[in-house]
Description:
Layout: E1 2-6, H1 13-24, E2 30-33, H2 44-54, E3 57-58, H3 62-67, H4 78-90, H5 93-100, E4 105-108, E5 111-114, H6 130-136, E6 144-147, E7 154-158, E8 164-166, E9 171-173, E10 181-185, E11 199-205, E12 210-216, H7 220-229, H8 234-242
Helix pairs in contact: 2-5, 7-8
Amino acid sequence: xxxxxxxxxxxxxxxxxxxxxxxxxxxxxxxxxxxxxxxxxxxxxxxxxxxxxxxxxxxxxxxxxxxxxxxxxxxxxxxxxxxxxxxxxxxxxxxxxxxxxxxxxxxxxxxxxxxxxxxxxxxxxxxxxxxxxxxxxxxxxxxxxxxxxxxxxxxxxxxxxxxxxxxxxxxxxxxxxxxxxxxxxxxxxxxxxxxxxxxxxxxxxxxxxxxxxxxxxxxxxxxxxxxxxxxxxxxxxxxxxxxx
Length: 244
Ligand code: ZN
């Protein structure tokens, strides 16, 4: 099976469409969405529709939860709060209903899937250090755990000697890291923050035992113009071009 993992779309329709177009050429059997479909961008409903149609497994992200009042925005920064307020006001009933059905976690043979962390996925913690990664390995028992949330693609390996390190390539072959377990952040479709403005998503080929990232260009100016029109904070608009 060839799986594609998309995450942190954040209502960026141009990015999502570009990624789905790229996915079409990758012989993918199943697309999995790790959450944060809405928040920040101008097309929450269109993104909900596309994800609902294309992804048999979709998880709830913290922005999705906040948009349907399942999470308070007290810990959100001011830009995110403004974006959530606009999203809540502009979400169609159908999109709202879809977001309310989403789970915090899913599993597949070989894989644990969460938006934030395997440890209490409903608390929206971040994995930003090897210490936090090490802690989280206790809370999944599959070979792979795939996450989103930080918008930073990274592959963390716990090898057979219990050594933890960051894999320094955008592709990893399970045969090269035998008996290892991997914690993989699949990056962000709609608001990458690793100084690369192109959309990021991941592909796992379970037969070949290979995970790799894809980067996809999209029409950033079009997305930005739409955000300007609905008066999203300038910071949210400009960061797309810088990938930060
Ligand atoms: Zn996000």
